[in-house]
Amino acid sequence: MELSKKHFMLISFYIILSSLGIEACKEPPRTGKHFVLVHGSCLGAWSWYKLVTLLKSSGHNVTALDLAASGINPSQANDLQSSFDYFKPLRDFMEALPSHERVILVGHSLGGLAISQAMKYFPSKIFVAIFVTALMPRPTLNISTLNQMIFDRGVLQHDTDTSRKGN
């Protein structure tokens, strides 16, 4: 992604945060929020490094997670059987949170599906969820339904059928 697009996304995200009443200022707020940042596909927690710095300097608690087989997570991609396995680090993190703590979930790209799953399993531990150019399923169109539709259409099959080429 070129540099200007990255700056645009960062500024857009900052505007969203400002609209929530979370301001970046020289003095940290008295009660900082806890942000949980979930990366998109082919990325890792490292992709949030600029935002982590901005939020922490504003007095917020920030956790940037590596999903399974991403970043420094030791899982191997070949061992993951489903998106449920891929999102396990987020579920484990949410489960370990104290029952009184509520976090702001932020998901980018495929991370949107991960935070959607966390919203389903841990609604009382989530203050708000922010989808940053992220996938956002709805109750009747979840990841399982999408996977089945793709499988039924044969989109993931190797296209060796010459009768379909060119269509």
UniProtKB/TrEMBL annotation:
Biological classification of the source: Eukaryota, Viridiplantae, Streptophyta, Embryophyta, Tracheophyta
UniProt keyword list: Signal
AB hydrolase-1 domain mapped to chain residues: 35-141
The protein, known as: AB hydrolase-1 domain-containing protein
Signal peptide stretch: 1-24
GO biological process assignments: jasmonic acid metabolic process; salicylic acid metabolic process
Pfam families, per the entry: Abhydrolase_6 (PF12697)
Organism expressing this protein natively: Quercus rubra
Keyword Signal: yes
Claim: Ribosomal protein is one of the keywords in the record: no
GO molecular function: methyl indole-3-acetate esterase activity; methyl jasmonate esterase activity; methyl salicylate esterase activity
